[in-house]
Fold this protein.
Amino acid sequence: MISIPGFRRGARIALLAIGVAASALLGLRTGDAAEPLPPRVLLLEVRAPITTGTAEFIEEGLVRAKRDGYGAVAIALDTPGGHLEATREIVQKMLASEVPILVWVGPGGARAGSAGVFITLAADVATMHPTSAIGAAHPVAGGGEDVEKQAGKDMARKIENDTAAFARSIATARGRNADWAEKAVRESVSATAEEALKLRVIDGIAPDMTSALSFAEGRTWSRSGQVQAIHSRGQVETGEMTVRQRTLAFLSDPNVIAILMMLGTLGIALEFYHPGGIVPGALGAFFLLLAFLSMKVIPVNVGALVLILAGVALLVVEGYVTTHGIAGLSGALLLGIGTLFFIDRSSAEYRFDPALLSLSPWVVWPTPLALAGILGFVGWKVARTRREKLRLGAPGMIGELGEATSDIGPEAGEAFVHGELWAARSDGPLPRGTAVRVRDIRGLILHVEAAPGRRGILP
């Protein structure tokens, strides 16, 4: 037997050994947990005009990067410009982001035009492809004219001062060239990648996104007075747009809006021509709804929209009123003019390049002409059908030929018409076997008259 003191000593040794082993295991696990995870970079590709959909896409990307612990957010930018309010929303989120943001203007030949200038200036690290460009953020009207010619001198000055102050504030916050940022708005200056680097508009030049991420590695960024190092060398994960964001981006194409308007008005017009069809009217309403939704994405000229609707109304009138083609031709002309001026490039809320914010000639002319042709053909068929004699019911009996099967007079008689025997009356006497024509029908009695030059139909 083991004595009690020996047993206690052995128990102490065993407990000590267990404690050492547990401490070792705990130390290993703690060390494993303390080992930093490799950094991840969330890549957001923006290769379209800046719209509401673009703002949602970038904002959701920044939220995701913060929530899922990404080391940085990289934006590949290539845009001609866009909606000023959407740009303000993006810049506000970028300035307040708790994750560093890297902007690379690329690939080769890309541009950060108009609204893209503000997004590039707001980046913590901004780089450009050697053959890319940045600038030209001055407000413009249709055809490249100054806003002053469209909205007046006072409004033009107000818009310009507000936008210039916006650009200066972003550049100052990021330590970039605020004077150049203001000139980009007031004088519409642009710069190549080399020029932008010399002017301190960007931080570096990179031929691809991988080089841009390597350039940003180890550089510092600050929020709320805290300076931290950027860790951008890691796994790159590309963020995808949602269905809603893709739809808004698709609707930002002015050609799409014009075609939606045409299809919508065509469906509504066909419903007027043929009431009760339901499908044309429902599809027309759906296309018009998409068109009106997209009108919040890019600027639309209200006057041009009125011209388009008036043109469709005239085409509908052509189907109901005999105008010998005058209403139809007028409607087609209004459709063409309305489509030509459909985009309102004088809107102060948009910063698009006038050359890019335009309708394709293949949409301006062929689409209204095709719509006019379709509605004209439908109207012609409707008018032709209305002039034809009804073939069903009592009205369909008017004008039908038959033969008197008995003597017919003002009081009595019978006639064989339309494969049936009918009670018949006539203003004068008609002998049996006379070819007759139905003049009227009252109840179940036919009022007939002789059909000269016609033979009876009975054998």
Remarks:
- Residues 4-34 form the longest helix (31 residues).
